[in-house]
C-alpha cells in the first residue's frame, strides 16, 4: 500500500571512518542501486547540536560530510542527499510528536544515558533526540530505515509514535521497518586500540579508527599498531581474538572477498606480516575515495549546490506531510 521510501541519517561530526563506510555508506549505495523508491539521506545537523559544537567547525563539517559521502560513491543525482536544518518541518513535526509520547518512555534509552552520563546538566534536546529522529523518519513516510544496532530502541519509539498518531488522528504514516546492518551480513568494524569496542568517530584517540581521508602513511602506521593478541597465526575467532578478526574483516570488505578466502591466503603469515597486507588492501580501497574527497573540498560551490538541491527536494515531500499533519490535528 505504501510506496517504498528508505530514510537514513548521519551526523556531521567527525570524519567518516571504515566502520561508517562498511556499516552504513556501502549499504546505502546498495539500496540506492536496488530500490525502486526514493532513498533519502540526511546530514542531521539539528541532532549534532544536542551536544556542544563550535559554529565555525560545525559549518565546515557539514560540507566535509557532504564531500565524504559523495566521494564514497553516494550519487546525489540518484538519491535525496540533504541538510536537515534546511527543512524546517523536521523541527515542527518533532514538536507534534513530542506531545504524543512521555518522559518516562524517553528516560530509559541507553544512548541518552550514555551521552548524558558525563554531563552535569542535561540539555533538553539531548533528551528529546529520539523524538526528532522519529520526525525525520515520519516526515517522508519512510518504510525502511537502515540503522546501527544501537538505534533499535529509537526505531521502536518511531513505530510507537506511528501507532499513536494513526490511532488518534487517522492513518497517516506507514510503520517504518528497520534494517540493522549486522543482520544484513555486514561486519561491525572494531576499534584498532580496544578491539572489544566498535570503531567510532566519537572515541578520543584517532589511532583507534581509519578515516576515509587518512594518507597511506597514516593507514599503514595505524594498522601496524593495531592491538592484536599473543598468538601469531591469522585465524578468525571474533570472540577470543577480536583484534585479528577485525583485521580479517576489514581486509575482506576492502577487497570484496569472504573471510575464509582471506584466511586461506594468509596461511603461514604471522600477524605482523599480515598487517602489511591488510594495510595495502585498505590503502588501495581508500585511495580513490581520498583523492575524490580532496577534489570535492576544493569545489565548495558544488557542495553547497548539492545540499541546496537535495534540501529543496526533501522540503517538497516534507511540506506535503506537514500540511496533512496540520489538517489531521486541526491546526
Ligand atoms: P560513530 O559511532 O562513529 O559516531 P554513528 O553513530 O554516527 O557512528 O553511525 C553512523 C552510521 O555508521 C550508523 O549507521 C552506524 O551503524 C554505522 N557505524 C558506526 N560505527 C560502525 C562500526 N564500527 N562498524 C559498522 N558500522 C558502524
Ligand atoms: Na555514535
TrEMBL record:
Transmembrane domains' residue ranges: none
Reaction(s) this enzyme catalyzes, per UniProt: tRNA(Trp) + L-tryptophan + ATP = L-tryptophyl-tRNA(Trp) + AMP + diphosphate + H(+)
Keyword tags: Aminoacyl-tRNA synthetase, ATP-binding, Ligase, Nucleotide-binding, Protein biosynthesis
Short name of any one Pfam family annotated for the protein: tRNA-synt_1b
A GO BP annotation: mitochondrial tryptophanyl-tRNA aminoacylation
Gene Ontology cellular-component annotations: mitochondrial matrix
Enzyme class: ligase
Gene3D superfamilies: HUPs, Tyrosyl-Transfer RNA Synthetase
Enzyme Commission designation: 6.1.1.2
One term of GO molecular function: tryptophan-tRNA ligase activity
Compartments it resides in: Mitochondrion matrix
Family to which the UniProt record says this protein belongs: Belongs to the class-I aminoacyl-tRNA synthetase family.
Role description: Catalyzes the attachment of tryptophan to tRNA(Trp) in a two-step reaction: tryptophan is first activated by ATP to form Trp-AMP and then transferred to the acceptor end of tRNA(Trp).
Protein name as annotated: Tryptophan--tRNA ligase, mitochondrial
Organism whose genome encodes this protein: Apolygus lucorum (Small green plant bug)
Amino acid at each position: 500500500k505504501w510506496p517504498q521510501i528508505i530514510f537514513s541519517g548521519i551526523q556531521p561530526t567527525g570524519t567518516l571512518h571504515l566502520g561508517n563506510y562498511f556499516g552504513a555508506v556501502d549499504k546505502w549505495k546498495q539500496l540506492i542501486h536496488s530500490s525502486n523508491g526514493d532513498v533519502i539521506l540526511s546530514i542531521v545537523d539539528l541532532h549534532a547540536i544536542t551536544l556542544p559544537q563550535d559554529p565555525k567547525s560545525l559549518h565546515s563539517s557539514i560540507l566535509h560530510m557532504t564531500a565524504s559521502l559523495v566521494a564514497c560513491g553516494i550519487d546525489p543525482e540518484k538519491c535525496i542527499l540533504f541538510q536537515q536544518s534546511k527543512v524546517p518541518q523536521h523541527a515542527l513535526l518533532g514538536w507534534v510528536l513530542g506531545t504524543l509520547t512521555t518522559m518516562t518512555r524517553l528516560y530509559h534509552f541507553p544512548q541518552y544515558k550514555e551521552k548524558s552520563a558525563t554531563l552535569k546538566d542535561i540539555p533538553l534536546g539531548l533528551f528529546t533526540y529520539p523524538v526528532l529522529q522519529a520526525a525525520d523518519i515520519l516526515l517522508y513516510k519512510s518504510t525502511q530505515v537502515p540503522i546501527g544496532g544501537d538505534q533499535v530502541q529509537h526505531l521502536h519509539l518511531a513505530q510507537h509514535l506511528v501507532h499513536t498518531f494513526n490511532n488518534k488522528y487517522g492513518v497517516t504514516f506507514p510503520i517504518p521497518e528497520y534494517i540493522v546492518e549486522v543482520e544484513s551480513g555486514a561486519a561491525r568494524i572494531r576499534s584498532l586500540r580496544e578491539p572489544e569496542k566498535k570503531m567510532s568517530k566519537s572515541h578520543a584517540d584517532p589511532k583507534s579508527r581509519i578515516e576515509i581521508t587518512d594518507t597511506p602513511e597514516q593507514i599503514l602506521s595505524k594498522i601496524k599498531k593495531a592491538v592484536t593478541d599473543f598468538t601469531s597465526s591469522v585465524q578468525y575467532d571474533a570472540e577470543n581474538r577480536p583484534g585479528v578478526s577485525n583485521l580479517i574483516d576489514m581486509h575482506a570488505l576492502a577487497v570484496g572477498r569472504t573471510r575464509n578466502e582471506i584466511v586461506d591466503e594468509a596461511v603461514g603469515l604471522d600477524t605482523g606480516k599480515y598487517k602489511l597486507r591488510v594495510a595495502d588492501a585498505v590503502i588501495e580501497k581508500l585511495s580513490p575515495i581520498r583523492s575524490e574527497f580532496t577534489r570535492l573540498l576544493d569545489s565548495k560551490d558544488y557542495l553547497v549546490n548539492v545540499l541546496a538541491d537535495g534540501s529543496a527536494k526533501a522540503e517538497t515531500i516534507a511540506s506535503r506531510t506537514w500540511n496533512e499533519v496540520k489538517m489531521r490535528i486541526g491546526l
